[in-house]
Amino acid sequence: MADGQKTTTGFNPLMVLVWAWVGLPFAYGVYELVQKVTQLFGG
Q1: What is the pLDDT of residues 1-38, one digit of tens each?
Q2: Phi, psi dihedrals of residue 3, rounded to the nearest 5°
Q3: What pLDDT sits at residue 9?
Q4: For residues 40 and 43, what is the distance between their CA atoms, to the nearest angstrom?
Q5: Computed from CA positions of residues 24, 30, 34, 35, in that sequence, does the dihedral angle turn out positive or negative?
Q6: Number of domains making up the chain
Q7: Which pLDDT score, from 0 to 100, does residue 11 have?
Q8: Is 42 helix (H, G, I), strand (E, B) or coil?
Q9: Is residue 23 part of a domain?
Q10: Is 36 in contact with 42 (CB distance < 8 Å)?
Q11: pLDDT at site 23
């Protein structure tokens, strides 16, 4: 490992917040898309 580099392992609350900030709206959008496609092609 080079000098000055730091590796972090384990739980990082900021990364959890960032993933939730991006992932939750994305998952909701996919859910809505599936509902719309089902309505469009399913009847």
Answers
A1: 556 677 767 779 999 999 999 999 999 999 999 999 99
A2: -65, 140
A3: 72
A4: 6
A5: positive
A6: 1
A7: 79
A8: helix
A9: yes
A10: no
A11: 97
- Give the Cα-Cα-Cα angle 20, 22, 24 (nearest 5 degrees): 60
Whole-structure pTM value: 0.64
As given in the structure block, the two tokens for residue 27 are: 């998952």
Q: Tell me the two tokens of residue 33.
A: 């898309």
Residue identified by tokens 């730091």 is: 6
The DSSP secondary structure of 8-40, one letter per residue, reads --S--HHHHHHHHHHHHHHHHHHHHHHHHHHHH
| Residue 21 identity (one-letter amino acid) | W
User: How far apart, in whole angstroms, are the C-alpha atoms of residue 28 and residue 37?
Assistant: 14
Give residue for tokens 């909701």: 28
- Domain that includes residue 25, residue range: 12-36
